[in-house]
From TrEMBL, chains A, B:
Residues 11-71 form the HTH tetR-type domain. Keywords: DNA-binding, Transcription, Transcription regulation. The keyword Transcription applies. This is AcrR family transcriptional regulator. InterPro entries: Homeodomain-like_sf, HTH_TetR, MT1864/Rv1816-like_C, Tet_transcr_reg_TetR-rel_C_sf. Residues 34-53 bind DNA.
Length: 196, 196
DNA sequence: GATTAAAGTGAACGCCGTAAACATAGAGGT
DNA sequence: ACCTCTATGTTTACGGCGTTCACTTTAATC
């Protein structure tokens, strides 16, 4: 029962299935891989999968979890690269949207399970990073949570709408939408603009 | 070939299928209805569906379109009830999120097609209302479009995250997130809060 | 009334997720 | 060394799905 990357004929079918799943989600745009297809790719009968996952939904959840971890890592790296602070905060959001566009099928899978994808295990690096960063920016705990959730909703909405083709998946547009300074125009500044 | 609501044995199977589809999407939480199931409900063989829709995707697209129209009507009514202006604008967003929570399966279907659900036909009342309202609020066309898209992304993100159980589908939380005044704290006001 | 095109039917195909019964191999105890 | 047991895999089978094809029926048209 080694978890090492040995041959899997006896070894870790589970990891092989997840790897095949992630690979399938990258290619062949939009199509979620079937359980049988993954088994085929890995060279195993379809029912063998059930020795490692109770059902397809569990397999999907594991894939979603893997995707979530990947996203968390990319965001952490991006935030560090940007040097934290509000600069890093924005960069985290940018990375979120970019991730969705770079891995559309995986991203959809991640957020299309009916329920939060687990709750146990390691508790979602991406979300931890988000709350930590916004707490660092705001101070007031309630305000920090609100900012965190609003930011999440914003980038998630941008990502989803772009994935669904409702708004163009344009880099410039991402930048424009990520800049939330104007959103407050109706509530914190004058309602007239800088144009004459 | 009457479009009137007559018997459908010969008559409008198409509308009957759409009605059955919308009904199915309301009950039995989360599950998207199958083509065969809808045919069964309507009392017709599965293949009869193909006389009215080229494939299942087209049926789904039609259902999505119907959902979009419904959303648009509810938003328009809500905006009018609130008396337009920035009050009506916010109300439109609130209605968007409420609609998603009230019709989760339909809402998911609406935004889960790969592509924008058509583009032809009547051009999406919801979106028209959104841009019109934000143009009324901002004046500057570019700024208006940005505000429109940001607002859309925000409410869409809130809706999606709540549907997926990532954040609690809580009425109070909706209100808190809809109030975007604080979002600009980092760019338009002081970074200190009103608490001592 | 005969013709014709639209609308509905039934059987069949290959895919899917899943269940049940069976096979095999490697670990552990004796 | 042997036997056993458990983890892991296989085969076969079931019902549901979307879709195709060849067919019948029905209502509208000349």
């Amino acid at each position: 029962m080694s978890t090492s990357p040995e041959a899997y004929h006896h070894g870790n079918l589970r990891d092989a299935l997840l790897a095949a799943g992630l690979a399938a989600l990258e290619g062949a745009e939009g199509k979620a891989p079937s359980l049988r297809e993954l088994a085929r790719v890995v060279g195993v009968s379809a029912t063998a999968v059930y020795r490692h996952f109770p059902d397809k939904q569990a397999l999907d959840a594991a894939l979603a979890r893997a995707g979530l971890d990947l996203l968390g890592k990319e965001q952490a790296a991006a935030a560090e690269r940007a040097g934290g602070g509000s600069q890093g905060f924005t960069e985290t959001g940018r990375t979120y949207v970019r991730f969705a566009l770079a891995h559309p099928a995986l991203f959809r899978l991640m957020f299309t399970q009916g329920h939060p994808v687990d709750g146990s295990a390691t508790p979602d690096e991406a979300y931890a990073l988000l709350t930590a960063n916004s707490r660092a920016l705001v101070g007031d705990p309630d305000g920090a949570e609100t900012l965190a959730l609003q930011s999440w909703a914003m980038v998630h909405g941008i990502a989803m709408l772009m994935l669904d083709g409702r708004i163009p998946a344009d880099d410039a547009l991402i930048e424009r939408l990520l800049d939330t300074g104007n959103l407050s125009a109706q509530s914190c500044g004058s309602s007239s603009e800088e144009s004459p």
